[in-house]
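Here's what a typical entry looks like (SusD-like starch-binding protein associating with outer membrane):
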Amino acid sequence: MKKRNLILSIFTPLLLVTVGCNSDYLETEPTQFITQEQLGEAASTNPDILRGTVTGIYTLMFEEGTGGTTGHNDFGQKGVDIWTDMLSGDMALSQNTYNWYRNFVDYQSTVDFTRNENYVPWRYYYRIIRSTNIVIKALGGDDAVPELAENRWLLGQAKALRAYAYFYLTQLYTREYEPTREILPIYTDPEQQAQPKSTTEQVYALIESDLTDAIDFMADFTRTAKNQIDADVAKGLLAYTYASRGNNEDAYLLTEEIINSGSFSITTTSELTGGFNDVNTPSWMWGVNLTPDQGLDLISWWGQMDYFTYSYQTAGDRKSIDRALWDAIPAGDVRKTQFTAGTGYRPVNKFYHPARVVNGQRIIETDYIYMRIDEMYLLNAETAAKTGREDEARDRLVELLSNRVPSTAYIASLTGLNLQDEIYKQTRIELWGEGKSYLAMKRNQATINRGSNHLFQAGVAVPYNDPRLKFSIPQAEILYNPFISDQN
């Protein structure tokens, strides 16, 4: 890769857009050529136009610039996943050349509301929210139950996507679950103007209501592509929501349902080192098939993470597994081979373009993963242990690890906090680089101790609820929403 193609400024100028007061704030392409009224009229008899609108919302999840900037770290959900993996401490910036993550990993960006890192997720998720509100309103609003089955499925997907966006906002912009704390503005209508913050309890009530409706509406829905949310994915999102606020009982029951459905199989030994690049992998619950027609290039998750893609991973912004976490993986565990010491503990055997030519993939054709069944096994084990079902927790852990480690015999003796700690460690190992370690860090109220291969803040103990581990409400929102005057 030619260095001149990657020399970029540390900061992209912050794009100040009107938040709340101006309906343009969350304007999104799927509806720019049709009015809300036209959508509503069309929806009652012909779902085709709304189907296209929902497809456009899914596209926002992976397109570059969906957070409102031209930054090379602004590319939807997987861009957020890199940030959260870094905040969890499990992903180390072990070499820095181009500065896209330098200030972030040094805990400077999250506490400074003028930084783009705070603006990008805020705009991205509220853009999803406004787009889903357009669909929900066209289908009759929050209390509607459409007569046409396809409209019911579309409403279910829209509600699940809105809940997904609000869930991530609660995780990123709050330190911990505090029911009465005012945290985020709620928008449930695309025509709403600026709103004040609602309480944590109110935001969670909307998330849980949306996901419960989505599960009901999509009970008979068979999706045509894995980028679409179906009832199982909605259950997974709801299980994460329950667990994040300490409702481990309901999270346990939901993950049991997903696992026992038999719709997905545990990732095999060969798939664990197979590149994580194919949405058709049987363990993948939710992901997207990326093709060259979509035109993704350097500004993408693969462009930041893959040694075998024309990328920052080869050019000087090295993302590696935390050395202490790698050391904690026992010899003989197949997941230890996902990383190699010779490449600075980069994930060269976990995520890669199939051709395995260094800098080989330029236009992205490898797929994105959002959720897999292995997460549900780990969350099931975690919530089982936290609700006193230790036998069930051990059994689930054994099921998952039986094709990963030489022996699972040690699990039989684990109880209490030792069992919970082991499940948390296995979650960090299993899901490294997939954007789930941050959620687990918060659920388990962990303290971050970065290993020796972090360029910044190595060895500094940071508890899960430290202000440095959350994003700040961005300057744009504070400037243009008269009801919000602080970063927290």
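The chain is about 40% helix and 5% strand.

More examples are in the samples folder.
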